Model the fold of this input.
Amino acid sequence: MIRRPQTPLRLAGYTGRHMAAGTKPRRRRAGLSTHRSSHRSSFTWGRHRTLLAFLVVLGFLVSGASGVVAYFLPAVTTAIRVTGQSTLGKGSSNSKLQGVGTPPPPGQPFTVLLLGSDNDTKFVSGAVLTQTMILVRVDPTTHQAVMLSIPRDLWVPIASGGSAKIDSAYELGGAKDAVQTVQSDFNVPVNYWAWIGLGGLVTLVNQLGGVDLIAQMPVLDVQYPYDLTGKNPYANQRIAILPGPQRVDGVNALTYVRSRHGALLEDIARNQKQQELLVDIKDTAKHMNITDIPRIASALGSEVRTNMSLTQVASMAGLARDFSNGAVKELVMLPPDYTTGTEQVGSATEQVLLPNWTAINAVVQQNFPA
Amino acid sequence: MSARQLLAGLATVALMAVFGLVVYSVLGTLQTKTTTTADPTQEQALVALPGTVFLTQNGSIYSLHGLTYTKLATPPGDWYQVAPGPNGDLLAVDKGNGYSDLYLLSQTGQVLRRLLQESSPYYFQNHFVFYPRLSANGQSVFYAYNWIDPAADYNVDFEIQSVPTANPGASPTQWSIPNNYTGGDVSPVPTANGGLIYTSFNVSSSNSSYPYSQLVYLSSPQGNPVYLTTPAQNCSEPSLNPAGNEVAMICVDNRLQSDTLEVATWNGTSLGTPTVLSQGPMAASPTWSPSGNGLLFMNVTSRGNPFQLYWIPKAATSKPGTPQQVTQNLSLNALSAPVWYS
Done:
């Protein structure tokens, strides 16, 4: 009878491949040493299995996270490229913008300065006027908001020194000067700012799939700038937006809020339409969710700038869903109450609007309390 | 490591990679679906309306008969604002780049005649013409025309004009005198007594008011305007019923960006108290049924969705009713009221 030497590494219950055919599996021998060995082996295999399972789960998690990162990468890179901002909550890391806009404590009302510019091909640099300046105060607890449009021709002290039309603050000193000018002149702390160009608005509306709006009046203009798509940015075109409910694409949305020649109140009428479009965009954007952000961010490119982080933008988008249109107060500075006249003053080469600070301060204090 | 273990490991790694791709793809599918506009000829209506209805979408005109749409064989163009024409034909606007022309079409889309040509090689001689309407006796065509003030070319408001149907090249009759720099007057509705109801826009000097619209009645060209609605009502888009004794209209709350479809009795000089037929969100372009027992109009199920055609019977009570959706998956031009032939 040939005795097989017992392999100390043989595992409990493991018969082994090398067992001769017809050989009965050896029973475990009773005894302390064998038991210890078997137990240790079992424990080691269990640890291996646990480790393996952990690694597999970790692999899947890493893979899934990679998918998420890859998906949101366009939004993140766009955000970083546009303003050098951080992406996850600290707002701007651009040194030029330090101190401009401080995030409010969670749940507290905050103020956003919305800026819009005619950055068409007539302009070669980023130094452009802000034809649109809208202060928006949002109260997340009461779900109420108020918008105040600041006329572009308002003659005010500006941050870079002296007095000028308020739309030149951005041209002279970027968002920092625009924000500081508004904060100083209107005594309103501004937490965030966002700037959008002509193409940005067109792209934004198109990315939303169009916007439903109720045009307040016919918009006719035979000298509307042909600067967005035309070869000659100084050329004009004839446009007509008919009144009433309708769905507009980006170009028509821009046309509606940009045209002013055919309106009695010119820039003030444009302010009203811009506020209206903001409400319409809010309504349309209710259908969007966070997974839409990369597509929209990629499309917008450098046509949007802000000191808000992506998480803050996403948070505000979520907040906007809870606002009914009746909870959004829309204010414009209609003459003659808020402006005392139109004159050519100081260094201005064009006529400007002279502010009636008594009336303006009253409405600001009422609607934008510190 | 055995080959089997190696294979298992590789398979696991491959699965991990696939999982990452799946996560990426799933996130993509969670994106909001942008509205896709269906070709009406590939769709069916939800409700079979009696007669034939003409609608416009993406610059084309479609007829709806029963549940089936047929595309009219118009020449290429941006066609909309179809209106009843003489002898069962159709009036329609073809919008070009900076102008629009008015045509008379057959019900199959064949161009019978160009009634108004507003395109010109001279920039300031281009004009827009919209909202065509045939007079009650069929002898005149009314429309909104953008006049250009030779002294101030920013002043280009719409005014209501009419031309003889048989001789549209004749000098037009100016009916309305628009408020300057307000967008002007649109949506003419000729009445059986030879008068005209239309929408007039204005801008309030009040601090809190938006631009507003009112329905106005003129008994004769450039006659004394009779205001049928108040600025606060902010009503537009009048539609006279076949019997000529009720007017449907759209009244807008600018602040809420919502509106109502309302109907009021019409005695030839004034409107009765309006009844709200349908409450928002974006009712537009009402058209009476040939029998006058209800209305077709455009609306959206909610903001962000495309305009569809809805039907609502004339109000039997003072409470707004629930409109019945007639079309689906389309993206109709809300600025173009449907035409309904029996």
About this structure: The longest strand of chain A covers residues 110-117. Residues 32-83 of chain A form the longest helix (52 residues). Confidence is low (pLDDT under 50) at residues 1-33, 86-93 of chain A. Residues 84-367 of chain A form a domain with the Aminopeptidase fold (CATH 3.40.630.190).
